[in-house]
Structures are given as structure tokens and as C-alpha cells.
Write a structure and sequence with these properties.
The protein is mainly alpha-helical. It folds into two domains: about 55-195, no CATH class; about 200-400, Phosphate transport system protein phou homolog 2, domain 2 (Methane Monooxygenase Hydroxylase, Chain G, domain 1). The protein has 15 helices and no strands. Helix 8 (about 200-230) runs parallel beside helix 11, helix 12 (about 310-335) packs parallel to helix 14 (about 360-380) and helix 13 (about 340-355) crosses helix 15 (about 385-400). It starts with a helix and ends in a 15-residue tail after the last helix. One of its GO terms (cellular component) is plasma membrane. Belongs to the YccS/YhfK family.
Length: about 425
């Protein structure tokens, strides 16, 4: 009873304070927490819907390929139970875009190994649990010894299991299994090449966005960290940039998938030139990621050592981040990336101004990495390496010549 009276007294005092016009701190905290939970719920829902939209084309391709594979095997080839044909079709489409032709070959190779091992062992040893175990072990060992990929190994083992378990009750299983593998893989390629081909540039744009956004965001964080001399902010940007494997893998896989689509789909042949531009951008974007990591790592050291930080230095890194965003946008709309190139040169010019004002050892490395990263971005935009380097050198030296008369033509250029 005493405890209950104490709780009522606390509640009475709290409501009394609210009536006196004071703020209920607990309610404010609860409201903030609930608002954050609602925001997270909405963000999660948006992410899920985005994933569903991204997978919709694949789902349609897989459904159509499964249906056509079953019809082809059942109606055209007379297979009364064409189970493996739709399975092979879906298995081919389940492979990463860009590996579907290879997956079809792997399906057929795995089936061949599994059928061979299963038939030979069952003929000499018969059927039973230990024979099944031996068939699976040998299928995996032999396919691995022959240099098969994981898909070949799995397909060989699965086929060996089917042969070992179904052959006693189902006659002539081997030939239909081969035929189904051919039919399923062929139908899957037909769907992706002719009936429902992907738009290769849309696939690449969707895959390039996370990689380029990651680079731009971490450069922005690094610029803010240098401006505020916040070592932890720069270190966080460096750690996040180092974990870029997923984004870069998605980008390179999308390029390989687009190459495959353009190779086998006549409806997409007119996109070859645009795809070539994207394919050439993948390597310099990867280099820009690595050079930006070096830039941010030296920025952390610069802050730790208390080196001078001229105002133009964080501005230069911020311009690099904006150059990445402009490159992503101009790629997406199919425009010549002039704005991205201009912003990269502006970053180099600001870095040169910072160098003139005075930096320490690590600061000079940051300046050098701004130049290198800007060069990578300009190559990604479609310029030749020599042309990009020439423009970088010219922009870096502009601040040294500002307000001075132009040197005679025979004079050597100022050191950069």
C-alpha cells in the first residue's frame, strides 16, 4: 500500500508540474524514440519495395522461362514428366546477370558427370544408402578434380543422387535428364535474349549508383572532418570506403551482364557504343575508390599530427565529391560529362591553392591524392589518360600564375 501511495504521489507531482507549464522530459524522449521507430519502419518498407521492383523483371523472366521449358519438353519432345527442364531454366536465370551462358554450360557439364558416375557405380554396386553416399562423394571429388566450378559440382552431385534413387523405378532417366538440361538452359537464354531482354544501361545505372554514392558521401564526410579537424569523422569515412566490395562487385557484375545481353540480344545491339563507355569507366572508378582511401588515410594522420589545414584543402575534397555525383547523373541521362570534368579541375585548383598556402608532409600527400583521384574521375568520364593529366597539371598551376604576367613561350612551365 505504501508503494502504491508513493507511485500516486510521484504521478501527482509530475502532472502538477505539467499544469504549471513545465516540460515533461520523459514524454519528449518517448516521442522522439517513437518518431525514430516510425522513420525506420518507413525506410525499411521503402527498401523492401525497391528490392521487389528490382527483382520483378527477374521474376517475370523466370516464370516465363519455366512455363516455356515445360511446354517445350512436354509437348514438343513428348516427355510425360519434364521436371528438370523448368528447374534448369530457373537455375540458369538464378545465376548472376552476365553468367547465364556460362551457367547453361555448367548445368550440362554437371549433368554429364553426374549421369556417368551414377550409372557406372549403380551398374557395378547396385543401390542402397552406402552406394548413394559413395556416388555423391565421387561426383563431388571428380568434378572438383576436373576443375569444375561450384555450380558444376552441385549439379553433378544432384544428378548423381537422382540417378541413384530414381533409376531403379524409372527407366531411361539419363537421356531425358540431358535433354531437359539443354531445353531449360536454351529456353532461359531465349527469354533473356529475345522475349524479355533487360535494358543493359538501366541495369548498369542502377548498379553504379550505390558505388558512386558511397564514394561521394565518404569524400564529403572526409572534407567535413578535415574542416572541423575531426579525426573520428575521417576515420569513419575511411572504414566505410574500405568496405566497398559489395558495391564494386555489383557494378562490375552489371557491366558483365550488360555485355552478355548485348552479345546475345539483337534488340540491344544498338547500345554497344554506350556500353563500351561504361565498361571503360569501371576500372578508373575502382582506382578512384582506392586513391580516395589513401587520401582519407593521410587526412587522418594530418589531423593527428596537428599539421596546418589551409581552407582550400577541404573545399578541394568537397569538389571531388560533387564531381562524382555529377558523373553519376551525366552517365544516367546519357550526357557528355562536362560538368563532372569541370568540377574535378576545380578540385585540383583548390588543392594547388592549399599547397601554395602551406601544408605539412601528410597534407602534401592529400594534395597529391586529390590530383590523382581527379585524374581517375576524368578518365572515367571518357578522356584519355594523357589528356586528363595535362588538364590536371594546368589546373594545379593556375593559382601560381594568378596576377602574374604570362611567361615567354620559351620559358619552362612552373613546377607542379
Amino acid at each position: 500500500m505504501a508503494v502504491a501511495r508513493n507511485r500516486r504521489r510521484v504521478l501527482w507531482h509530475r502532472t502538477g508540474r505539467l499544469r504549471d507549464g513545465l516540460v515533461d522530459v520523459d514524454s519528449a524522449r518517448i516521442a522522439g524514440a517513437m518518431s525514430e521507430l516510425r522513420h525506420r519502419g518507413h525506410a525499411t518498407l521503402r527498401d523492401r519495395l525497391h528490392r521487389v521492383r528490382s527483382a520483378m523483371v527477374l521474376a517475370l523472366q523466370a516464370g516465363l522461362a519455366a512455363a516455356l521449358a515445360w511446354l517445350a519438353a512436354h509437348e514438343l519432345l513428348g516427355n510425360p514428366e519434364p521436371v528438370f527442364a523448368p528447374i534448369s531454366a530457373v537455375g540458369t536465370l538464378a545465376a548472376s546477370v552476365g553468367q547465364r551462358m556460362r551457367r547453361t554450360v555448367e548445368l550440362i557439364l554437371g549433368v554429364a558427370i553426374g549421369v556417368l558416375i551414377g550409372d557406372v557405380l549403380i551398374y557395378f554396386l547396385g543401390t542402397g544408402p552406402w552406394q548413394l553416399a559413395l556416388v555423391v562423394i565421387l561426383a563431388i571429388v571428380i568434378s572438383t578434380f576436373l576443375g569444375g566450378s561450384a555450380a558444376v559440382v552441385i549439379q553433378a552431385a544432384a544428378t548423381a543422387v537422382l540417378i541413384a534413387t530414381l533409376s531403379p523405378s524409372t527407366q531411361n532417366l539419363e537421356i531425358p535428364r540431358f535433354v531437359d538440361a539443354f531445353v531449360g538452359g536454351g529456353i532461359a537464354l531465349l527469354v533473356t535474349a529475345v522475349l524479355l531482354p533487360l535494358n543493359p544501361l538501366r541495369v548498369i545505372n542502377r548498379a553504379a549508383r550505390p558505388a558512386l554514392d558511397l564514394l561521394a558521401d565518404q569524400l564529403d564526410r572526409a572534407a567535413q572532418g578535415i574542416r572541423d579537424r575531426n579525426r573520428d569523422l575521417c576515420q569513419g569515412a575511411l572504414d566505410r570506403l574500405r568496405s566497398n566490395h559489395e558495391e564494386l562487385t555489383a557494378f562490375t557484375d552489371a557491366i558483365e551482364g550488360a555485355k552478355e545481353t548485348i552479345t546475345i540480344s539483337p534488340a540491344r545491339w544498338h547500345r554497344r557504343d554506350e556500353l563500351a563507355h561504361y565498361a571503360e569507366a569501371a576500372a578508373p572508378v575502382d582506382r578512384a575508390m582506392r586513391n580516395s582511401g589513401t587520401l582519407i588515410r593521410r587526412a587522418v594522420t594530418m589531423i593527428e599530427d596537428g599539421e596546418p589545414v589551409p581552407d582550400p584543402l577541404p573545399d578541394a575534397i568537397g569538389h571531388l565529391a560533387e564531381s562524382v555525383r555529377l558523373l553519376r547523373h551525366e552517365f544516367a541521362v546519357g550526357a557528355e560529362p562536362q560538368d563532372s570534368r569541370e568540377r574535378s579541375l576545380r578540385a585540383v585548383s583548390e588543392a594547388g591553392r592549399a599547397y601554395t598556402q602551406g601544408v605539412g608532409f601528410s597534407g602534401s600527400v592529400v594534395v597529391a591524392q586529390v590530383r590523382t583521384t581527379a585524374s581517375d574521375l576524368m578518365v572515367a568520364s571518357g578522356l584519355e589518360q594523357e589528356e586528363a593529366n595535362r588538364l590536371i597539371r594546368a589546373s594545379f598551376g593556375e593559382q601560381e600564375n594568378a596576377g602574374r604576367p604570362a611567361p615567354p613561350r620559351h620559358a619552362p612551365p612552373p613546377p607542379s
